[in-house]
């Protein structure tokens, strides 16, 4: 199957009909006309001339054919039409030259309505009924009964409607396409001290590339030379630059802000985080939501029903109530126009596409419209603790010095260690400005800690077992017990005769976590639950500081799954985790959200990925999804409500052709503009 870009596709209902026709061709069974992204997916062996012929019935063509660069005939036709209509009004009402006004009305009707008329005639020969067929019948009918002004006004309004429909969808598509343009095209390959420009598709693992100031890093890799700040907005949505130097990972698509970097490629471009993100975003824009699927099914029954109603309006009053044929034939034509399903079909896709685009710009990867819709319905969020509400890195939360050499000795013993607890101690010692001295004769005692000589004296650092026979005063015992009661890990520093001090170490709570939890509750999330494998005392401490509604500690992965299942009995549940050890719970929830920063496992596991690797944009994503759901409901209500109102006007016989087209046009304009307001979310 091969993907082709097409232009001129502005009607969702028409796209469905085109797809049905192309699927009837030999080899066309799996063909897809993708309205949201304006693409068509075809078998490579299909007869392209026959496909072109079908597309041309809706003025749709392949972008590669180059014709789209020509004049906008719809716009030109509208200008001519409006000018002719004004001329007709002047000659009719000011100069009283009726036959000249009819000529101008005819020019106005033809200028705006000729393409619709030709499509409608073709459809009639195939007994195919869509908006073009309905409009053609209405125009012919209006002219037949001498309503030249009505015919011209209907043609003009329908032309404006088509133009606005096209503009609305193109605006949403362009927003998505601008997002997809972040992918780099070329790389500067370093080989034998020389540079060579190659396509990113030619890059291989272990190639070293040169990235100059302002250039995009071509694919995921590791810095092997240079130091610079890098803008990772393409991956994470964060605009603040990140400092990079030797040994640090970089993502394809991120921009080198300053200096020169040599990057060793670790993944070919099609395996890079950016490539996967862009592929998933493109897939997401074509995935149908439950609401869209319902609307499309409904539209298939809706148009035939409208045609039956139109026939009844034309026939019942004259036959049963002896009403005039001409008047009710006219009313029936107006009902046909009201029957256009375009506004209804547009109710969802522009809003969904806009919502996915806005979130993707914020570094929130939503894998499909269905997941965006589902996020808007979530009222319970379950969080893993480590790496989600906390940083997943130990740090010193409290310490007590009983001797002036406490920090100096701890720094000397721990500064060469790579153990996470040692890093936490070193960070604290540097923070307090500890004196830097060297430790000698360091010995690791398994399960206890380290002994070392500092300033010709032996010291011990580790857990309570490392103390040995050193006497512990009541003051020290009291401090240690209080630190332990809070669920902290204890690191003691002691000499042979006394305790120098104690560090209390715990996983650091993310600074933004309390505010995020508070914001989520404000946005309508009724319950936030923390699920963790950590000790209940630790869990309680984190729960209090972050403000979650409830918590459960000491859970195994299977326990988390059971808890998520029980939560689902009370509402729609999203589970947020790191995408690796939380995979079963993520899969069990109504919606799985992973903390990612470009990790393959997170991108592949969850329905939604927070590429920033923190919860900062989550309340925003919830707000956008709820806004999208609300807009879709309003759109459906507006499109059906305006049509129902127009149909009710047939009862007293007040429905005119121009009121009918205005009801359809009004619905389409309101639906389109309403949906595009989602794109304004980023600009607040």
Strand content: 15-25%
How many H/I helices?
Answer: 24
How many strands, what sense, and barrel or not for the largest sheet?
7 strands, mixed
Computed over alpha carbons, the radius of gyration is 34 Å
Shape: elongated
Helix content: 40-55%
Keywords: ATP-binding, Cadmium, Cell membrane, Ion transport, Membrane, Metal-binding, Nucleotide-binding, Phosphoprotein, Translocase, Transmembrane, Transmembrane helix, Transport
Enzyme class: translocase
Catalytic activity: Cd(2+)(in) + ATP + H2O = Cd(2+)(out) + ADP + phosphate + H(+)
Membrane topology: Multi-pass membrane protein
Q: Explain this structure to me?
A:
There is one protein chain. By secondary structure, the protein is α+β, with helices and mostly antiparallel strands. The protein has a 7-stranded mixed β-sheet with strand order 14-26-25-24-15-22-23, with helices on both faces. Strands 6-5-7-13-8-11 form a 6-stranded antiparallel β-sheet, with no helix packed on it. It is elongated, with a radius of gyration of 34 Å. Its EC number is 7.2.2.21. It is found in: Cell membrane. Residues 182-282 form the P-type ATPase A domain. Keywords: ATP-binding, Cadmium, Cell membrane, Ion transport, Membrane, Metal-binding, Nucleotide-binding, Phosphoprotein, Translocase, Transmembrane, Transmembrane helix, Transport.
